[in-house]
Amino acid sequence: MSRPELQAPPEIYYGDTEAKKYTKNTRNQQIQADMTYRALELLNLPPDEPAFLLDIGCGSGLSGEILDEEGYLWAGVDIAPSMLEVALEREVEGDLFLQDIGQGFGFRPGSFDGAISISVLQWLLNAETSHPTSSPPHRLNRFFTTLHSALRNPSRAVFQFYPSSDDQIQLITSIAQKAGFGGGVVVDYPNSNKARKVFLCLYVGGGGGQQQQIPQGLDGDVVEDGKVRFEKRRARDLRKDKNGKRKSQKVIDRDWILRKKELYRKRGKESVPRDSKFTGRKRKPVF
Amino acid sequence: MVRLLTHNLLACHVKGCTSNNFPLQFQNVQIELREADFNADFLKNFLPKLEWKALVDSAKDLGDTSLPLEQPEMLDDEFLKNLHHVLLEIHVEEGSMTCPNCKHSYPISNGIPNMLLAEHEIG
Q1: How many domains does chain A have?
Q2: InterPro entries, from UniProt (chain B) (predicted)?
């Protein structure tokens, strides 16, 4: 199984069963909680003011519950109706919206004191249709520009996400910068394959006397206190061979070869060999 | 769970709909009252962000007229209590919100407004 975001669009992947499964899983709850606390830490809100936050991709309200506990008021948006339904059942305090973040927000300028988003941005990196407004750069651009205006000056937005390559980080940060954000990427536990977490820390404003500094990522050895540090379904991606490449799939059988050839022909690739009775046959050992 | 707190921040985000797109008008609403914790500091901090006239008008639409037409200079306890009630305790459960400019209607069901746009409306 590959990454969730490659299997189906979020509103379909997180259908009724997956939404319940995801929310009930104590492992997920623990990870989500850890990451939410870390995101709040990076958000660095003034301690004595009750802030109004935006939870982007709030899902079933796992992170929202923590915001409730910490005494923040919040509004959450998510695209998966089933997840929001679970959030309603769990009676979180925030206001929920069914919204596609790639379509942009309609919030008035300066509405929020900060924004957090746990495990969401990677979902914006796949195009679902060929319409120009559904290309990832367009959606990211729309998302970041409308988010930038919805945030108060100065404030921060912290996104935890699972990039599958450095190019993706590059794409996201460059679009965020064009939208007017400052800041950058913070990587926690960069030397651990499993516990490694990528946070995008974005700033609105913050110029003038007090320049905002990108916080340091957590480093050193992962504290072994019996807690889970990674999502299992993500860890599957990490199976690599000793050269650091992902293990390639072996040629399986004749059907597989025929299917591949058919695919290449459909794509218009030239010089695809003809199919014959010899296709996919083993050579004799005497050859 | 649309409360006036977030409703007061919400404008229409349809493509090209940039003026007169606030506040969204409530239609056919069912409301529910739920008590919430009173937090005076939060209200005081939030006050500068509010569009007062829009808030009073929308509160009137929902049948609450406890707020004064002009935003008062002095914040006394009674005013804050009323503001708390209007902002945080009135939940719109069913109905819809319509943009005064482009007439796009955002349906609310189960307390969750559907903000999804059709392909041609995306900016």
Answers
A1: 1
A2: Trm112 (IPR039127), Trm112-like (IPR005651)
